[in-house]
């Protein structure tokens, strides 16, 4: 049987035929927003050393990688993400000032078979290097908000979390940090109750921990949490989220999630996820990761985000039904 | 409209009883025949499926809430869900079981372990720094030691009567199992009030059901 004449590998994404025009339209809109803000589009390589993703201790695991051994005997992976290669690019450039990169392209991640998932993800995003603090955060948040109208989805939520808040929580529970991490990742209300009654961290922290699995909502929730929060580092993190919120011209669709767990270890400040009610996966994600460039021995800050184009396209198709 | 997927069979019965005690209209469910999709007066639509499928539907956003055993969540590499509540029903546990001689037997080779839950078995022995050979059996796993295809099994133990009837006993407990309420991550953002209403109502009746 000449199966190759009609089958594609299970890893492959189906050819996109009907909505390519729509996809390119969104892409061009994003490109327009990015270049208006002075971002240079970069075409990045498709192959990277596996070490780049694993040896910096960012949280990437080899089981997600499509890899082979090259002529040097080294493991090479298909591009798994854009942020790390762009951080390398910046770290090795003569530029030590601000830098603005944008990118469009696919990343490749192995997914479990037969779950209706594909292994190719089309992303479009930006990295802003060496613009620390609120000014940098505000710049990327503004770009996200300017991008949304061109995506033409009706219901979008932009959810802000804080890696600073999260990292401080882990510090406060000391040896129990792994357990807390698992509980928050699953939002396990029952397990959190057991965790708190088993360890007893004092009234104030106990109450905070118990609230975290469901601690998301609009600005009122953030203000409420700021009133009751007693730890100065936690409060500082919440204050930063509030400052970012206040700095934005539009507050539409912005919510906060204080139980948000960083997807990568290098996150240090605000984190963002964008949701559409038509997509079971986030349509955008990003945040501030001042801990990334130092891993390349460059003491500079970074912030960025990317849109998940496949999920956006799927959501648009669903909304049109 | 909240969409729920429930694991068919025993979990379905226990969860619907609990939801009914929590004040939700479950009459259409109790009176159903072979329908796979049912709507209730509370604006809840329910589908019934195999445990893995419940998680698959949930991760794809077909349903907002799922009721499924911890055994399923432990064994399959799903990751796109929140595990909000332990309903404390359907309690049982994973255990290593074998003939009593297994305890003191010296193995000059890798142990052979039969299980339907190969990931659970593999992870458990790995956590004990033991390298074992896993043999997948789909059911009546006790046949492993009985037929000699394996030295021991990793399986769900409820009363232990099947083990006993075959001369086997629990060697070590692996982990606790009970029924969990899981939620689609994005649905939780858009339908927080409806989902928290179910959580709050359920929390009032959890734990009162130990002998169900």
Topology:
The complex is a heterodimer of chains A (321) and B (212).
Chain A: H1 20-36, E1 40-41, E2 47-49, H2 50-54, E3 67-69, E4 75-78, H3 83-91, E5 99-108, E6 120-129, H4 133-147, E7 156-162, H5 163-172, H6 177-186, H7 189-199, H8 203-211, E8 216-217, H9 219-228, H10 232-247, E9 254-257, E10 270-276, E11 284-288, E12 302-308, H11 309-319
Parallel strand pairs in A: 1-5, 7-9
Antiparallel strand pairs in A: 2-4, 3-4, 5-6, 6-12, 7-10, 8-9, 10-11, 11-12
Chain B: E1 2-7, H1 10-21, H2 27-30, E2 37-39, E3 44-49, H3 51-59, E4 65-69, H4 70-75, E5 82-86, E6 92-98, E7 112-115, H5 118-127, E8 133-136, H6 143-147, E9 152-157, H7 161-165, E10 169-177, E11 179-183, H8 185-190, H9 192-205
Parallel strand pairs in B: 1-3, 1-4, 7-8, 7-9
Antiparallel strand pairs in B: 2-3, 4-11, 5-11, 6-9, 6-10
Keywords for this structure?
heterodimer; A: 321 residues; alpha+beta; BirA Bifunctional Protein, domain 2; 9-stranded mixed beta sheet; 3-stranded antiparallel beta sheet; 11 helices; 12 strands; B: 212 residues; alpha/beta; D-Maltodextrin-Binding Protein, domain 2; 2 domains; 6-stranded mixed beta sheet; 5-stranded mixed beta sheet; 9 helices; 11 strands; cytoplasm (chain A)
How would you sum up the global shape of chain A? globular
Q: How do the strands line up in the largest sheet of chain B?
A: 2-3-1-4-11-5
Count the DSSP helices of chain B. 9
CATH architecture of chain A: 2-Layer Sandwich
First CA to last CA of chain B: what distance? 29 Å
Share of helix of chain A, binned:
25-40%
Strand content of chain A: 15-25%
- Whole-number total of structural domains of chain B: 2
Radius of gyration over C-alpha positions of chain B, nearest whole angstrom: 19 Å
- Structural class of the secondary elements of chain B? alpha/beta
State the largest interface.
A-B, 24 and 26 residues
Task: Please describe the biggest sheet of chain B, giving its number of strands, its sense, and whether it closes into a barrel.
Answer: 6 strands, mixed
Structural category of chain A: alpha+beta
Q: What's the CATH topology label of chain A?
A: BirA Bifunctional Protein, domain 2
Shape of chain B: elongated
Mean pLDDT of chain B: 92
CATH architecture of the largest domain in chain B: 3-Layer(aba) Sandwich
Main location (chain B): cytoplasm
GO molecular function (chain B): ATP binding; ATP phosphoribosyltransferase activity
Pathway (chain B): Amino-acid biosynthesis; L-histidine biosynthesis; L-histidine from 5-phospho-alpha-D-ribose 1-diphosphate: step 1/9
EC number (chain B): 2.4.2.17
